[in-house]
Amino acid sequence: MGALGSLSLSGIVPKPRNARINSVNFRSVLLWDPPRVHKGNLSYTVQFKSNFPKQDFTNVTTNLNVTECDVSSLSVYGTYVLRVRAEWEDEHSDWAVVRFKPMADTIIGPPIVNVKSESGTLHVDFTGPAADHEHDKWSLKQYYGSWNYRILYWKKGSNKKVIHIDTKHNSEILSQLEPWTIYCIQVQGVIPEWNKTGELSQELCKQTTHNGVTPVWIVVIVLLGSMLAVIISVPICFISFWYLYRLTKHVFCPSYIFPQHLKEFLSKPPSGSQFISPVPQEEHHCHDWLTVISEEPKSQSDETVEETTETTECHQEQESG
């Protein structure tokens, strides 16, 4: 009969093996392995008690047919003793005991990370992780007194020469990076008060773009090109303006040169008796005659007689001519 026969005769049920807690983000499950040798189909009973305040054991579940039990309903701020035993008909095993403190024992999962490349920098945003035992899904930052995010980044292919930054915020800008270079990033939660570090997020790699800083040689070339353009354009603009001015003057204000032969002809005095003085010249002669007028004071009657005399003489000269 061996061991099974001796266990049956003695009426003793072996206790569960390797009892343990698996807790991630406060989702906590008590696990164990069944006894190596047992009679028929076993069931299990799980109990807990709180140390602060101290109390007696209370059933979590009974007649359990699987080798695990969810204990996430326990307050995350308590300290507990959990125990499980195997049962068969009216017989039961000894208790397998596990101590559990959710705040210290739960594993901090990785945050959700998003990386964006912009102007030579990497913008890293991260959220969570969230508690997995309540419907509200609060962030674990709400439960711990101190919380930091640790950002680890390195150039891809550089044997992971890692640089890390700690921040209390949910975002960070990684600057002073080499342009057009691929960087890989991971983020984890850090709780100094409990000396806990969370799991690393999935590795994300992103290439940086141009950092927006113009190299000196480009600045020098642009400056010299601008100066050369000014030196060339100023004379061209001046010449164009002068040409336009001359063209406009020629079109709207043309200058005529009097022919030389006409100048010589008109400059010669009239010859022969056939030359007839034009009327304007006679009028000019009359005017010359009239200009010889005494400026001595005369009576009004004398001035009238003199003007009549001068007018008569002028008409006589015109008729004789």
From TrEMBL:
UniProt cross-references to CDD domains, sorted A to Z: FN3 (cd00063)
Major localization listed first in the record, in broad terms: membrane
Protein name: Tissue factor
Subunit and partners: Interacts with HSPE; the interaction, inhibited by heparin, promotes the generation of activated factor X and activates coagulation in the presence of activated factor VII.
InterPro entries tied to this protein: FN3_dom (IPR003961), FN3_sf (IPR036116), Ig-like_fold (IPR013783), Interferon/interleukin_rcp_dom (IPR015373), Tissue_factor (IPR001187), Type-II_Cytokine-TF_Rcpt (IPR050650)
Molecular function terms from GO: interleukin-10 receptor activity
Compartment(s) of residence: Membrane
Domain of life: Eukaryota
Region feature Disordered, mapped onto this chain: 295-321
Entry keyword set: Blood coagulation, Disulfide bond, Glycoprotein, Hemostasis, Lipoprotein, Membrane, Palmitate, Signal, Transmembrane, Transmembrane helix
GO biological process: one example: blood coagulation
Membrane-spanning parts: 216-245
Function: Initiates blood coagulation by forming a complex with circulating factor VII or VIIa. The [TF:VIIa] complex activates factors IX or X by specific limited proteolysis. TF plays a role in normal hemostasis by initiating the cell-surface assembly and propagation of the coagulation protease cascade.
Annotated family: Belongs to the tissue factor family.
Biased composition (Basic and acidic residues): 312-321
Residues covered by the Fibronectin type-III domain: 13-106
Any one annotated GO CC term: plasma membrane
